[in-house]
Amino acid sequence: MLSVEGIDLYYGASHALRRVSLTARKGEVTCILGRNGVGKTSLLRAVCGLQPIRAGRICWEDRLLNELPPHERARTGVALVPQGREIFPRLTVLENLATGFAPLARKERKVPDEIFGLFPVLKEMLQRRGGDLSGGQQQQLAIARALVTRPRLLILDEPTEGIQPSIIKQIERIIRALAQRGDMAILLVEQYFEFARDLAASYLVLQRGEVVLSGRREEMDEATVRSYLTV
User: Which CATH class is domain 2-85+152-227?
Assistant: First the structure.
């Protein structure tokens, strides 16, 4: 389980996260919702070690992560699919996937067959440069690259952004299947409410860096949650 306890995060004098807490369990999708600029990506960056926290605790599988740098957190099974995908446009699809080998022992450095079962289009494009792929294909590549690391905590930052509806449905099916395996916790930041609602086992809503709503999916008051998402 991922446990985030009362973290504070600053950018200079700006207080971006205020005493934020959450848990994310294996076999479940935990969704983080909120308008732009409320601290969702900052929370993910804190979990991954890309932004230091001022106070609080971040624990994964009973291990305190606070002082671990990002590459060490990756070795504990944490993988991030960043907003905007951030693939390497001049590298081939296969080379992009191979960048996921970095946290793995040498004997594990191969692309699992499961990746091509989930994303068959990538197998057809292994020698194509990442920058030549469509937005939806690049998003699939970004998720596949994270899965190459064999994560036990998969973190996705707005995976539906700029993606055509058919690919969104495919990504939804893949996230659901990964959660149902039971060996992975999934932390999802998403603006598309229906996508998040349908996948979430639990959720929290951020406003101005604070948690204003949280709970289990079956207890969600959709109207109240939507009120925090509309501009």
Answer: alpha beta
